[in-house]
Structures are given as structure tokens and as C-alpha cells.
Amino acid sequence: MGEIATSRGICRMAAGYLKKVARYPYAIDGQTSRHGLPFQKNNPWRIFPMQQQKNFQIRAIDSLIATGFALLTSIPLSAQSAGFVLTGEIAFGGDELAVVSGGGGDLQAGQLLNLGIGYDFDLNTDKSLRLRTGINYKFDSVDASNGEADFDRWPLDVLVISRQGNFALGAGITYHLSPTFEATINGSTSRVDFDDSMGFLLQAGYMVAERIELGARYTLIEYESNQPLVMTSGAITNKVDGDSFGLYVSAGF
Hints:
The protein has 253 residues and is mainly beta. It is 11% helix and 57% strand.
């Protein structure tokens, strides 16, 4: 497993020492920063790997594949268009918030798992046009020998979906509640609370069975914080790109 390095938020910590910790690199290289934290000389954002690595993304993909298979084989389906809908998405993209060196993966603002429940409302008599509303939990995390980091939020989605035969096209808005990035490195915790953010959704799907849909989705969104952030690239900003491209499965009941 590698060790983890993160984007640093200049956070207001209750203790002065923790505030200094949150503003300076987390790493290990046998040397010590002026705050007593060891850091890597040449690149303070990269941290050395260990032999065993927990690859959260691989586990997440395996889990979603298993979930999709279970939905395809066991969920009782309704012949009606309107009704509740379960969704699961694997998404990728966005700015890099944390990195595990040695190919150990990274944490990006647009990924990884997005799980939700919603409701479809028919907008016309032939059921070719519908309104879908839903609430989701979107999250990602990385683990390493010196700590962990995670980013999560609660998206609220409203889409208008047009269906022609087995094909469906949708567009709408998404509003992400409580986007939060948190990292615990060498026992010290840093947290950045982003403002609630509104973005846009585009998706295209294909009905593979009655009320079972597979498709692709693009999310366009940006997260903003009142605190300046130092990204892994070294850039200082208070905005983070959360755009993502994802593959989804949905099942109605």
C-alpha cells in the first residue's frame, strides 16, 4: 500500500498546531518540515508506496458490477412507466484532491460511486416523456499507510427524459448538498466544507429489459470554498472542477 498525499485547504483549525499541519505537505522522506512533519524533499505532494495497496476503485467497480447483475436478475419489474427508480453509477473525472504515489490511485472531485433512489412521473399519455427526481449519495476515498482521504456529497437530481422505443435521452439539473473533503494524515485531520453547488446533467440510455436501463451520463459542476485550496499541482484556488463522465444502471419498481 502506498502513502497518501492530499490537496491542502487553508482551514481554520481550533488548535494552532493543527492549522499549521493542514497548510503544509504531508509526506515521508526521512526529513522534517519546520512544523515537525516529515516531508519529501523533491515533491512534497507525492508519497512512497508500500507492498500492499488497498485499491478502492477496483473494489468499487466490482461492487457495482455485482449490483448491476443482481438488479438484472432479481428485481421485480413493473410494466408501468411511472414509479420508483434505483440507480447506480461509476463516474470519473474532476480535479485531483489527493494522490497515492507509486500508481496507488488518486481521489478526484468528480468520482467515484453515485448511488440513489428517485421517482418517475409520466408527463404525457403515451409515457414517452417523463420527469425524474431523485436523491443520491456520491463518494470516493483512498487509503494508504499514513492515513486516508475521502470526498462525499448528496446530489439532488431533476431530469426530463424522452423515450423513443428502447432509447432514452435526458437532461436536467443537479444540486449537490454538503460537498466535503476530509483527510487524516499521520493522525492529523484536515477538512474542507464546500458550498452547495448546482450543475447540469446529460444522459443517454438503452432499455435492456422492462424498466432496466444501461447508459452514460455527463455531469457538469464546480465546487467552491470560502477557503483557498492548494492543489496537488501547486495551484492555489478556491474552486474545484467536479465534472465527470459515468456509466450507470437503473431499475424501476
